[in-house]
Amino acid sequence: MSAQSIASRLNILIPRQKLPLRSPVVALIAVFCACAALAQALETQIFDPATRTWVTYDPRQAVKYYRAHGQAPEEFQRRIVDFRTAEKPGTIIIDGDKHFLYYVLPDFQAIRYGIGVGKDGFGWAGIVKVGRKQEWPTWTPPAEMIERDPKAAQYKDGMPGGPENPLGARALYLYEGNQDTIYRIHGTNQPWSIGLNISSGCIRMNNDDVTDLYNRVEIGAKVIVLMQGAALYRGV
Amino acid sequence: MKSILSTAVQATVFSCFLAFSPSAQAEKLVIGVPAWPSAKVTANIIAMSVRDTLGIETDLQEQGTLTILGEIGSGDIDVHPEIWLPNLSQIVERMSGNEGSLRLSPNGVNATQNICVTKSTAADTGIKAVADLTNPDIAVKFDSDGDGKGEIWIGAKTWSSTEIEMIRAHSYGYHRTMNLLEMPEDVAMAAVDAAVATGRPVVFYCYGPHHVFELHDIVKLEEPAYDAARWNIVKRADDPQWLEKSRADTAWDGSHFHIGYAAHLERDMPGVAKFLNRISFEPSDTTAMSYAVVVEGKSPQDVAQSWIEANGDRIEEWMK
User: Fold this and answer.
1) What CATH architecture applies to the domain A3-18+38-235?
2) B292 Cβ under 8 Å from any chain A Cβ
């Protein structure tokens, strides 16, 4: 099946859990957050109901889809869903396996956003809180990236916020107690990457969605990061 | 499970009991308040009832369950609203008896400990029994990371029940087909919520009374009835070979929890002691208390007040 034919059906497809690394897609520009290391691409598989087969939704196809439609597949678009939970309204629940972030609403509903996560998932699971919020955050490349990439080196003192900044329009800084975990929920300058596992560590949302979330969430809000595979679950 | 014990901790706490002599608190009833919602509501029901009906001043003190037991031993706290058994059996046995500092209400609330799935999981995967988890074809349906093994939440790291669930997994043999995951309860319950929302299979340790049974359609997996001959638990703290020496491949024994109180109340506040002995909750009471606090976001005080207003006849009966 061609990438184009896959893309044409993506608006009715649903994502499957992440699968093991098959091959890196070196042509892609990776999205980094402050804690990011070298980016690699993993493949998300998506069920095609027309052929009843799982087909690859990798970054190459994601880019094509985004160019064709100007947005991520329907499954990853912001929507209100039924969500029965004991968590209080205002809580954020991150489901890296499905590439969803839930913002809990009253009456057993939630706003579901599509997200992109790291190549190995979020890196950990547990309970943190929103410790700080920032509009158009500054991005500082990690030291190893500065050493490796001269283009990144020019931002060693920080890249000002703006459309080209990999952290996108907003960032929510996740704290454990009063300690910054170095993990963030942030926007992106590469919205095609929603639904994929690339880069590492942080949670990416498209800029409209992260702005919507930013406007709703309060400092101190509880953030529950779910397991994304047993290894991460056990590692906490 | 709520009670978090190791033998070493039990021994330390018990030795603390011996270091203090109980002192009567004839003027005020001090009620310990453990961290979980149904216990908080029960503590408030006791406090409000004793204050309003018997005219005795009360004081609520939020403490961990072991600390409350320790302070009952030392005479600083008078009541523990929810002592779980068999999880706290060893320490309760040490504190009870004619010369002991603790009395347990004879009326326990029946509790359950099982392995659970959602109703849709049972339908989609065909799983019916705990032993089905040893079947690789079933187990792989719970695989969330593509390694060919399923994932099962067995409890929080610090729970005494988690150690036993690990023993059960090894005794049944599904430790070979399933990854045994330990995580805080909030994370595990949110994972159940997300699994329900997206139609994914999920299997997890469950205990009741618990609000998850109100929130979702939950199915308890079948297993052989409790058999003491097949239930031998060696604690991790007691023996490095605890896992190899233990066996538990049947259902849990019946669990239950009771109100506990300082023995000196029988002498100093006999009316209170009689009342505490006669309180008799149903599991549905406890589930409703938990649900009202956790899911509906009501304060334990408000839930207790509402419960008293709706159950005045029961309170009156217990006060006779």
Assistant:
1) Beta Barrel (2.40)
2) no
